[in-house]
């Protein structure tokens, strides 16, 4: 399982399929921002991170320009990651409450974190065709993550990407398709794991109060119950 996942991650890091995203991620890595001017940026596609035997998959949108695009690890080095990893730590799924770099010692237990789009997009807005080109990595990743029993989609794009993945697998989807909402749950007649929705953990959502720690914790605990994880 871990070997298959590493192969997928190696392919992700080598990808140059989207010219606009390649140009942007590399420009950001070259120009940097003042607060990180002394740091070396990753500037490549960002693979997933976590427990290869995880029963929970968390799917986000894309790397932050000066977060994961800088550090090379998903949701690491920015405010979105601060919020997410603090919640995972409270739930007993992360060994520490913050994630600052690839070598900060963070360990995830029972959860794997990935992205619908692997390169930082301008304005945090990937185009539809860029989302489609990245979809094969979701398919490959899900084949490698054989223990997943529940999926948490952060935001509408991750929600749609999760449903599109199931459709490509031939899983019958409810009609009309389940709509994204915070706290949404989509269940399927097949053996596919249930899909939960949460507002994205972006700074825009968390600083305005659209998404609070209590709101996220409630959804995360539902996901854990569905995955068979008991809180300690």
Order of helices and strands: HHEEHHEHEHEEHH
* Rg calc: 17 Å
What order do the strands of the largest sheet run in, or round the barrel if closed?
Answer: 1-3-2-4-6-5
Discrete helix count: 8
Please report the distance between the alpha carbons of the first and last residues.
26 Å
Q: CATH first level: which class?
A: Alpha Beta
Measured as a percent range, the helix fraction is 40-55%
The chain-level structural class is alpha/beta
Q: Do you know the CATH architecture?
A: 3-Layer(aba) Sandwich
Bulk shape: globular
Structure commentary:
The protein has helices at 2-14, 19-31, 68-71, 79-90, 128-144, 156-168, 203-208, 213-227, and strands at residues 49-50, 56-60, 111-115, 150-154, 185-186, 195-198. The protein is globular, with a radius of gyration of 17 Å. It has a single domain (2-171, 182-227), classed as Uracil-DNA glycosylase-like domain (Uracil-DNA Glycosylase, subunit E, 3-Layer(aba) Sandwich). The protein is an alpha/beta fold and 232 residues long. The chain has eight helices and six strands.
């Amino acid at each position: 399982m871990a070997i298959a996942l590493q192969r997928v991650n190696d392919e992700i890091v080598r990808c140059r399929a989207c010219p606009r995203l390649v140009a942007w991620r590399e420009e950001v890595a070259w120009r940097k921002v003042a607060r990180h001017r002394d740091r070396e940026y990753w500037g490549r596609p960002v693979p997933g991170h976590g427990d290869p035997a995880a029963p929970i998959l968390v799917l986000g949108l894309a790397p932050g320009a000066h977060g994961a695009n800088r550090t090379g690890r998903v949701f690491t080095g920015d405010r979105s990651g601060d919020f997410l990893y603090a919640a995972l730590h409270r739930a007993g799924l992360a060994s520490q409450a913050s994630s600052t770099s690839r070598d900060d010692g963070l360990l995830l237990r029972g959860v794997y974190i990935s992205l619908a789009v692997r390169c930082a997009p301008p304005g945090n807005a990937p185009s539809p065709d860029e989302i489609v080109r990245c979809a094969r990595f979701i398919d490959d990743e899900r084949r490698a993550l054989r223990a997943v029993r529940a999926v948490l989609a952060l935001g509408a794009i991750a929600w749609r990407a999760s449903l599109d993945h199931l459709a490509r697998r031939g899983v019958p989807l409810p009609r009309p398709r389940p709509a994204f909402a915070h706290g949404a749950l989509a269940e399927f007649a097949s053996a596919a794991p249930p899909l939960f929705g949460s507002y994205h953990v972006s700074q825009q959502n968390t600083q305005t109060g659209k998404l609070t720690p209590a709101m996220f914790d409630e959804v995360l605990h539902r996901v854990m119950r569905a995955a068979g994880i008991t809180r300690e």
